[in-house]
Amino acid sequence: MRFAHFDMVFLFFLLPVLFALIFYSGYRRRRAWKALADESLRSKLMPTASAFRVTFKNILKTLAFVFVVLALMEPQWGTREEEVKVRGVDMMVLVDVSNSMLAQDVPPSRLERAKRKLRDLIDMLAGDRVGLIAFAGRSFLLSPLTTDYGTLSLFIDELNTQTIPVQGTDLAGALELASKAMTDKDSAKAILVISDGEDHSERLDKMVQTLKEKGIKVFVLGVGTPQGAPVPNLGGGFKTDPAGKTVVSQLGESALKELAVETGGAYARTVTGDDDLKELYLKGVRGVLDLRDLKVAKKQVWESRFYWPLGAAALLLLLERLIPEARRAPKNGNRQEEASESDAA
After folding, report:
1. Separation CA 304–CA 74 (nearest Å)
2. Residue 71 reports pLDDT greater than 50
3. What is the per-residue pLDDT across 72-131, written as a single tens digit (0 to 9) for each?
4. DSSP class of residue 240?
5. Distance between CA 194 and CA 16 in Å, rounded?
6. CA angle 161, 163, 165 (to 5 degrees)
7. In terms of Cα–Cα distance, which of 202, 199, 250 is closest to 225?
8. Single pTM value for the model
9. Which alpha helices (H) appear in the chain, and where do they start and end?
10. Domain spans of the chain, in order of start
11. What CATH number labels 85-295?
């Protein structure tokens, strides 16, 4: 058993206020009767009441208040399976994990900036099914399309340049793997590429045509700067070419822009805020694509049982209203005594 709104428990602190109101109501009533007539006349005018009944009615009111608070807290027990449908898109995220992503022209590094952007993206997601692919010289599907964003976050945390042992920038292979992973023919589809590199191969040109035929738009987040930065070695120092010169990795922005434009997507260079993600995801993916109803796997949902305490409160209040305070008229010899008992109540 659990409570959906446990914060409503603070209402129990109003019980002393309820007791005070009940006491004050009885006090005002007795005071009004005393102001109306003296004691000898009041015993003839005032209905004969039972102190026990008055007390019992007050207990019923208090219990009704307790059950109303329990209803507001919404007790839940038992579960049922429910199929959740949300409007969204199928989106595969392709993350470049090649060694060039270790360059620090975008602090703390291109790869760490990419991982931060992915975490920010997860916070923005509104029910879309998202998959994750890491690529360098080869591509690997880390997560198929899912709405389990918690598991997706775990994969993001583990991304590093050792995720794909073969170095390079096989973007075409990653795009091909992404298109194959999106098998729902009726869903709106998008690919988000996070990379600093470019792939000028003929294979990439053919892949762009395939994506256009399938109606899959590619949105690209460029990570890095046109000026570039040296690529660190894992063992220290920087990578050098055969001539001994330090290798400077630059953002291949023109090719990434062309990829996005050719498929009907959009390009943005990473910035420190979230304007880049808003441009690509909110205005691009969710703003341009035709959102569809996505069927999600069934999940366990708690059954709400608020109506039980609410029904108990209603019955208690009904019972309180049906019980009269006055009892049957007493015999003449006991009238004065019972009137005094009523005053005491």
Report:
1. 7
2. yes
3. 999 998 888 777 777 788 999 999 999 999 999 999 999 999 999 999 999 999 888 999
4. B
5. 61
6. 80
7. 250
8. 0.64
9. 15-36, 39-45, 51-72, 110-124, 149-157, 171-181, 202-214, 253-262, 275-277, 286-288, 307-322, 335-344
10. 2-79+302-344, 85-295
11. 3.40.50.410
